[in-house]
Amino acid sequence: MNTSFFSTRHVTPTADRARPDEDHSGDRALVLGGGGATGNAWSIGVIAGLFEAGLDVTQADLVIGTSAGSTTAVQVTSTATPTELLAGTLTAPSPQRTSLAGPDGGRARVGQAAATMDSTAAIIAAAADPADMRRRLGEAALELDATSDGSGSARWRAVVAARLPSQEWPERAVLITAVDASTGEPVVFDRSSGIALADAVAASCSSGPAYRVGERRFIDGGYRRSAENADLAVGYGRVLVLSPFGGRTRAPLDWGMQLAAQVEELRAGGSEVETIAPDSDSEHMFGANAVDLSLRPAAARAGRDQGILLAERLADFWR
Questions:
Q1: How confident is the model at residue 16 (pLDDT cuts 50, 70, 90)?
Q2: DSSP secondary structure letters along 27-53
């Protein structure tokens, strides 16, 4: 194994609570929800559209990234401008959607994603509460990991690392979410957590087998509370949430894991909150289709169009 691609350091992730040990207090928080490959592209498009219309949201005091949103968080806190990130998304090679096999995506990837959604839906339906759900999902991921040859985490790390504009944690406050597969406990990583940036993002985006970092195992940060985890922005005056999945949850509503419940909590604490979700014309790009790489350019363009339209309304809120 190439050790430059895989950290074996002991991981001491920040305990999950409203605000980690490092003081991230400030006025503006940007929350970037999960949503697969198309969700990342759509979020980049929204941010680029806002930027093009004169509103730069990348200078938030805190950026929170979950699952694919963790990749977006690293991208938008890099030295690349939103316009450059959008250009890279639009010009990246795109596989044919009708491809039935191969590493580039297409129907095989969509089918695998649909199967994963079905299996995790059954686990969620059997769970008694959020903690039980996370434990069950962790157990299932560990079982898959136990039947693998152990190389999956290294391969996944290499894929994730290649997507990141830098392998170093941003100087600004960035939080990346995950779940400990062994305990079901929520985890929040930041630059003080003792984990390499690529490992944090790979853990947050992990699906299928648990992602290994040293002796620890992790699953997707979207299972912490939601695909957005906007509650981590508690105490911030203005919170902008980009939600590729439109704030939906697959958990029972009485668990309070949906984005709307988090927004209500933030507002009750004094935060102003605005949310952006894909418009109805873009919804076909998400769900199981979120892993279809051929849809990324269309998702990015749709996001850009939304960002341009929303910039004027959001200007007074954000500035």
A1: low
A2: SEEEEE---HHHHHHHHHHHHHHHHHT
